[in-house]
Design goal:
It is built from six helices and seven strands; from the N terminus they run αββαβαβαβαββα. It is of the alpha/beta class and 249 residues long. The protein has a seven-stranded mixed β-sheet with strand order 1-7-6-2-5-3-4, sandwiched between helices. Helix 4 packs across helix 5 and helix 5 crosses helix 6.
Length: 249
């Protein structure tokens, strides 16, 4: 039986567009490096083929584009549906990003992510669910769920410098700022057949969070950097439900 016919079925789910995602990455890297000092560490940890989940902390507005552009492989990132409006929305769609409604169960986004993985591609996800301090205080189940369904390894990604201390939710780093992407060794969860119990997904999520916290601490030590701290008062984004750790206020 094809992986696409296993629950949740993805045999009737189209793969997100790939042409712009693959074709524009070299140009986008050159343009971004003209503005920022972008350093990539640990790229060798990303498997060169086969399904992979890139799970990243979420600090600034450019985290998604940076992940899609500078990861060793093209990445289809789960992106909040609010971004899919107007010209930006059309660009995100044709560059292969996956719209996600964070406040309800979104079977369409789940199936698109699974379609990418079952086709041997790379999916990007931000387990915190929104921008913030990037310290993984809030952690959601999506990355672990994808790993349990597909058996794909999870590569932790620590983003540093994408928002400056005191920076607003939509602010960009100053010109010339150093931005670092630190890829950690893959973390593998055993593939689990349907039905997958909520408790199993929660336990796997906590294991993944512990691993990412270790990688976060190591990345900050090895780079000599720090995270920017929380967003200014009143700018905290709404917190999606469904996390496996305590809520933020």
């Amino acid at each position: 039986m094809s992986e696409h016919t296993q629950p949740p079925r993805t045999d009737h789910t189209p793969h997100p567009p790939r042409l712009m995602l693959e074709g524009l990455r070299p140009l986008a890297r050159r343009l971004l490096r003209r503005r920022y000092d972008v350093l990539v560490h640990g790229a060798e940890h990303v498997p060169t083929s086969g399904p992979v989940i890139l799970a990243a902390n979420h600090v600034g507005v450019i985290d998604g584009p940076l992940l899609a552009i500078f990861a060793p492989r093209p990445v289809h990132a789960l992106t909040k549906i609010e971004m899919f409006r107007g010209r930006l929305g059309r660009f995100l769609h044709y560059s292969g990003q996956i719209p996600l409604d964070r406040f309800v169960y979104d079977p369409g986004a789940v199936r698109q992510g699974l379609r990418v993985l079952r086709d041997g591609g790379a999916v990007g996800i931000f387990p915190e669910g929104h921008r913030g301090a990037g310290e993984l205080e809030r952690f959601h189940r999506g990355a672990a769920y994808f790993a349990l369904v597909t058996g794909a390894p999870v590569v932790p990604v620590i983003l540093i410098g994408t928002r400056e201390p005191g920076g607003h939710t939509g602010s960009l780093p100053r010109k010339g700022a150093r931005i670092e992407l630190v890829f950690g060794p893959p973390f593998t969860l055993e593939q689990t057949a349907w039905p997958r119990r909520r408790g199993d997904v929660e336990s796997a999520s906590l294991q993944l969070r512990d691993r990412m916290l270790d990688d976060l601490r190591e990345a900050l030590v090895t780079t000599g950097r720090s995270l920017p701290g929380p967003l200014p008062p009143g700018e905290q984004e709404p917190d999606p439900s469904g996390g496996v750790t305590g809520t933020t206020t």
